[in-house]
Write a sequence for this structure.
């Protein structure tokens, strides 16, 4: 999730249905801890238990969790990160509120750190090399938390070492890159703020956004393999995905000094920002500025690569009826500095939710139908490493047994409304949960009704409904949806977009992302945190406890119909190259018919007393539908992306991504036969996936 301005250049990212219940890898011995209440194959969601969980989720406890989690910097693999591993284990092994079991898994992964002996430096020098101006090496210590020994200096992870010297790319070529966060992008679309943290939520001028510049996700040296000691590793000199040139982030106060003195032609309008001056392109500094026209910007980067051991922490509640079906709920643990918002708002919610469920479990009053796996991922900030290594290590097991993945990373960006991203089948369960819970504040609205005021769309099936966004690769859901094809979602509270155009909360990835920042400005009283905990907790229980999985396959029909309608705009040129959309039209119609018939079968079964095997078969069809959209050969140029509906789309037409991308490239190539052959291949891949999805939804006896 990198959002930066660039200064001086640019950097050139159907299984066999089970017939019985097999105890899975994450299940535990039957005799461990409290026995389950009397379980039966017909166990269904208990609304009283659900209400109890929602009522017991405590905003003050979430607040105290956040205070503890964010009191010290906890960069991945540092001592404080490992101390939080022990904190999670302690909570999940508590005799009164713990889970059935808790354990860690460790991976040896390649990370990137700045040198402790040679700080990275950005300076303006004259023709003799004398330093005329130096950018800050660290952020201003405004609250006593920015100057500690464990605060990592600003750097761009995985940027190579080097000492380029130039003023801009146009004259000298791209030798190095400076990045900064422009105030226009984060301070409500305004220029320089009048007040900044600790007096407002705006970013102080010295604030620097850290981040990873590795192109892919997962450990850089072990793609598609878990980073265990025995795994084959690439040589770091030959591994792909690293930036080719040095990069260094700076604060906007330093960027202002450089940009406002740059000469040359005026930069395009969409390059202009909020530093209070015109942004020019160079070359050289302007004649009436504070630097000589032939002054140079010297960038010294001394980052180093290191193999480090990083831990995931797993907390498990064994299912009473289907212990081999897993509902996963996760967030990463590591941060760039204190990480109060990112990621600790999510971990604070996770700990409170697991406490409430663990207390019911230890009392013997509840055990879920399916197993619940809570996860705290390591080294996410470097490229979703912990979650990706987990999906690589347990690839087959998770594809066969994982029902859904719930991600709650930053749980509160702001306190206006719920924001959910996910695959279409999760829409119905999220809506059901949101309708049950009151929104924070005095409006008297449910979270659902409040949500629809801020973000909505017109559905051809349901009318006006809240908008559910799509999943990219900004957090740990990425390997679950793109690599494994597991129905996934990301849940948070966010902004009123009519009042701010900020791309994200202003102190993102800086040393000013602290507990007080959350407590004073993002969510005083922690009612939005509580709302997220209640919504995510309700979704979790509905997925783990419902007799029939609350996933609506027909909600995919709207997406497919939308993609098909967009593809119709390509018909004329496609037919000129002998490519017909007919098979795609037929495949979409077959899916729609199969989904409708499937929902009718579920409704019929719900009217009676279904046989447990019938329930199991239906649920496996619901679980496996998302997998049918995977094709490992669809995007050979991409790493881990195999979902033919949600892979990155670079083409301008909002249709199936592979088709859109191939069409855009072929159109630009003119009559190149190979380019149009790729369009035909991508169209065939989509048709095959849709046909497979429809087949998965038909009665299992229909081969």
């Amino acid at each position: 999730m990198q959002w930066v301005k660039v200064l001086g250049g640019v950097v050139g990212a159907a299984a066999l249905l089970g017939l019985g219940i097999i105890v899975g890898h994450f299940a535990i011995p039957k005799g461990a801890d409290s026995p389950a209440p009397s379980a039966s194959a017909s166990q269904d969601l208990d609304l009283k238990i659900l209400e109890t969980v929602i009522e017991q989720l405590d905003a003050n406890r979430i607040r105290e969790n956040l205070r503890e989690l964010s009191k010290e910097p906890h960069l991945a693999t540092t001592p404080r990160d490992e101390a939080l591993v022990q904190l999670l284990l302690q909570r999940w092994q508590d005799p009164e509120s713990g889970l059935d079991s808790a354990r860690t898994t460790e991976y040896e992964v390649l990370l990137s750190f700045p040198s402790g002996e040679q700080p990275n430096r950005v300076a303006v020098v004259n023709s003799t090399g004398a330093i005329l101006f130096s950018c800050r090496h660290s952020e201003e210590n405004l609250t006593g938390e920015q100057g500690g020994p464990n605060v990592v200096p600003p750097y761009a992870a995985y940027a190579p070492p080097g000492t380029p010297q130039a003023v801009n790319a146009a004259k000298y070529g791209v030798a190095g890159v400076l990045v900064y966060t422009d105030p226009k992008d984060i301070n409500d679309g305004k220029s320089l703020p009048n007040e900044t943290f600790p007096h407002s939520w705006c970013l102080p001028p010295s604030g620097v956004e850290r981040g990873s510049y590795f192109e892919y996700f997962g450990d850089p040296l072990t793609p598609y393999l878990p980073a265990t000691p025995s795994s084959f590793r690439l040589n770091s000199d030959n591994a792909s995905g690293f930036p080719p040139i040095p990069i260094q982030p700076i604060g906007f106060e330093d960027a202002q000094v450089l940009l406002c003195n740059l000469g040359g032609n005026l930069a395009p309008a969409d390059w202009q920002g909020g530093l209070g001056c015109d942004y020019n392109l160079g070359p050289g500094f302007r004649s009436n500025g504070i630097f000589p026209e032939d002054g140079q910007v010297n960038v010294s980067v001394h980052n180093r690569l290191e193999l480090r051991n990083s831990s995931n922490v797993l907390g498990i509640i064994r299912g009473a009826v289907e212990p081999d079906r897993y509902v996963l709920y996760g967030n990463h643990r590591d941060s760039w500095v204190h990480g109060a918002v990112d990621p600790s708002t999510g971990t604070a919610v996770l700990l409170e939710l697991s406490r409430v469920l663990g207390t019911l479990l230890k009392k013997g009053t509840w055990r879920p139908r399916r197993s619940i796996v809570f996860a705290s991922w390591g080294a996410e900030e470097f490229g979703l490493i912990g979650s990706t290594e987990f999906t690589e290590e347990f690839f087959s097991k998770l594809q066969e047994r994982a029902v859904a993945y719930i991600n709650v990373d930053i749980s509160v960006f702001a306190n206006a409304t719920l924001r959910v991203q996910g695959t279409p089948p999760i829409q119905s369960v999220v809506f059901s949960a949101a309708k049950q819970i009151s929104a924070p504040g005095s409006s008297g609205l449910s979270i659902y009704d409040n949500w629809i005021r801020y973000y909505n769309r017109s559905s051809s099936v349901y009318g006006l409904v809240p908008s559910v966004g799509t999943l990219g690769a900004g957090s740990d859901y990425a390997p679950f949806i793109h690599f494994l094809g597991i129905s996934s979602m990301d849940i948070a509270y966010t902004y009123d977009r009519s009042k701010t155009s900020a791309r994200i909360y202003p102190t993102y990835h800086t040393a000013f992302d602290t507990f007080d920042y959350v407590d004073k400005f993002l969510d005083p009283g922690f009612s939005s945190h509580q709302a997220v905990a209640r919504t995510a907790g309700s979704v979790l229980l509905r997925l783990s406890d419902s007799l029939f999985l609350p996933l609506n396959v027909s909600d995919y029909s709207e997406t497919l119909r939308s993609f098909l309608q967009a593809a119709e705009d390509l018909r004329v040129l496609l037919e000129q190259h002998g490519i017909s959309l007919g098979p795609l039209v037929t495949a979409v119609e077959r899916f729609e018919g199969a989904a409708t018939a499937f929902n009718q079968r579920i409704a019929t079964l719900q009217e009676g007393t279904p046989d447990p095997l019938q329930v199991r078969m239906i649920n496996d069809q619901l679980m496996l539908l998302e997998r049918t959209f995977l094709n490992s050969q669809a995007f050979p140029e991409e790493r881990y992306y195999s979902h033919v509906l949600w892979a990155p789309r670079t083409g301008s037409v909002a249709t199936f991504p592979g088709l859109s991308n191939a069409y855009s490239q072929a159109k630009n190539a003119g009559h190149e036969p190979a380019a149009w052959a790729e369009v035909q291949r991508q169209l065939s891949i989509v048709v095959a996936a849709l046909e497979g999805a429809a087949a998965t939804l038909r009665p299992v006896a229909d081969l």
Remarks:
- DSSP finds 20 helices and 18 strands in the chain.
- The domain at 554-697 is CATH 1.20.930.40 (Transcription Elongation Factor S-II; Chain A).
- The first helix runs from residue 47 to 56.
- Confidence is low (pLDDT under 50) at residues 1-35.
